[in-house]
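S1.2 Input.
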Amino acid sequence: MNLHSLLQACAATGNPVRVGLIGAGKFGSMFLSQVSTTQGMNVTVIADLDVPAVRNACIGVGWDDAHISATRFTDDAQSLIADLSVDVVIEATGHPAAGLKHAGIALAEGKHIIMVNVEADVLAGPMMAAKFRKAGLVYSMAYGDQPALTSELVDWARATGFEVVSAGKGTKYLPEYHNVTPDEVWQHYGLTADEAAAAGMNSQMFNSFLDGTKSAIEMAAIANACDLAVPCDGLAFPPCSTDDLQNMLIPRAHGGVLEASGMVEVVSSLNRNGSEVPRDLRWGVYVVIKAPNDYTAACFAQYGLPTDKTGQYAVMYKPFHLIGLELGISVLSAALRGESTGQSRGFNGDAVACAKRDLAVDDMLDGEGGYTVWGKLMPAVDSVKHGALPIGLAGGVRMVRSVLKGAVLCWDDVAIDADDPTVQLRREMEAMFIN
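S1.3 Output.
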């Protein structure tokens, strides 16, 4: 509740929070749009592979010449992290291997890091976060993104003494979306390819939102940050309105859809026939809580909280998230409070590669949101036991065994370089958390 006053003190004393941004895509650009109106926080360095495009992006989000001239632009992320004018690093590349590499450099340089890169966090974030904690540094989820906002609701619920029954988000989902490729994605968003290109929208990235991959990754991140379980056979994506969350997202024994209490789940804004769910949660996040006693349940009713028919289960939700527009909260929490806005602390959930079509020997996988695989949520202990291939390692690798459509891929199905640093980090994390 005091971030703004702390920020005002930074501005008044001439000691702004200094930020380095790696990756200026849609999320990064939305963050940059808020910088000029956030007195006391400066972006001193921006790193991106396309420097001229980033300069144009800064102009497009409203930066004036003074802001642009005061910022160093580079294509070298390592130099950004090492720059003495950077206090907090934002990793927003969306590339798992790059994200983990940059986190390792930030750790060595003694810099806090905000991981917009959920893909990297799910691949090896629990171990990386532990290393940052040991060093007295902040490793944080990105506020504005759904995992951090959900984690905030879970933290609120537990800190006030409630049992967390379920937590998660909403999305637009139909079962057939698992097979959608980047060539077909824009029709599902009501856009043409030209309109999407003009808005700077990447077809493979947005396809990962549609085909279930991003939901699997984000729910794994929430499970790992909040010590929640994941469904044994992946997300169910039940169609559900905000009026029905407290009825549906509770254990089956009490009339809901969950295997047990304390799980993550995603609700769909579409019914299975394709019609829209009234009062959907497509853009929001939720937590379902349980009253610890009859007195509390009575209070739920007295103060108008939506409950199930027993009065024991209730819901709190946030209908929207503003992704990069809210990212400054993470930056300021790290720099001014030494706190994260959510971070992985265990390895409960994993996002693994599932075949979109029959895959043959020598086929090349193209990773998240592509033509070959989609990401499925799986309990981490099952993922490791069965040797499932993490979705974060399913890009740019060659098939060495044929796999049928719908099957979960295994490490042995692909040609993996055991000496690759990202592979080694992942293997290290598996050994750290799964006995």
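S1.4 Remarks. The longest helix spans residues 118-134.
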